[in-house]
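Explain the record.
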Amino acid sequence: MKQFEQIWKKHKGKVLALAIPVITFLIAELICSLTAGRHIFETPLDMTNFLRQCSINTIAGYALYLNMANGRMDMSLGGQKLVAGIIGGNLALSLGLPAWGILVTSVLFGTLAGLFTGILYVTFRLPAIILGIGAALIFEAVSAAYSTNGFQLYGKSGMGMLSNVWFILGCAVVVVFIMWILLDKSKFGVHYRAIAGSQKIARTSGIKIYARTVVCYTICGALIGFSGILETGVSGIMSTSMNLTSISIAFTSFVPVFGALMMQRWISGVFGLPIAVITFRILSMAITVFRLPQAASSVITMGMLLLLLLVMNLAGNADYKKMVNARIEMARQAQ
């Protein structure tokens, strides 16, 4: 019995995190069945679309999470996605490259866009959110100037790989594994967590903060380019964006990323992100069952985001008070 309690204490957080999407599905399915007379998953196509969107959103979520966990909000991710898809994708098409060539070229241009943003950040030392807005304007203008018609895969032969659900799911699994190695099992991950804890202490310890920052921006660019080309493979087209409308691309991952940050007390953020993505995708599909207007869906989504922020703030305050009380108790014992 004691051994079981030790095992439960060790893995309780992981079990709680994994239970979140399961409980969410059961509650949402019950509500949909009783009130709308429908199930969340009615056809095999529903499951296919669910796996596609969860996989693509997970890859895009890492692009936002990697910087946000260190206190940097990169608003240029949507612009980087446009550069990767519209410039990289159209260039690959003009060269007659197959689907894998388009994928590689788009990821390459996304990487270059992320590297450019990272270099701007460490060079000018502007607040990340302000720099991101400026970089987004540049990326939008450059991608629109390159091709006013955007990037289109619809009707192109030999592009089925980019919309194949098992290929997209496999890509997501590979990305999760790479992020796990990078953030949880490597020296880079140790430095990454040290910077997230305290940049001043990390710098004093000899960690090259700005070099790590450029690496983070570069990886984020590659990830958002990767997710963008997979999304285009499913939808068939990537349109141009101007006047900062590309920022909305980054906002789509806000709620899952905040959910992953909240679950870090239970489970690694690397695995918390796909759990959060699955959870909120289930909620989104449940909302569509009721055929609510887009405005109502947005209100519900933003309401969940606000609730998460409130919970994170309360949890943070509770942890801080717990730490202060523990130090007071240690001081009393020392006396």
Remarks:
- The CA atoms of residues 172 and 272 lie 14 Å apart.
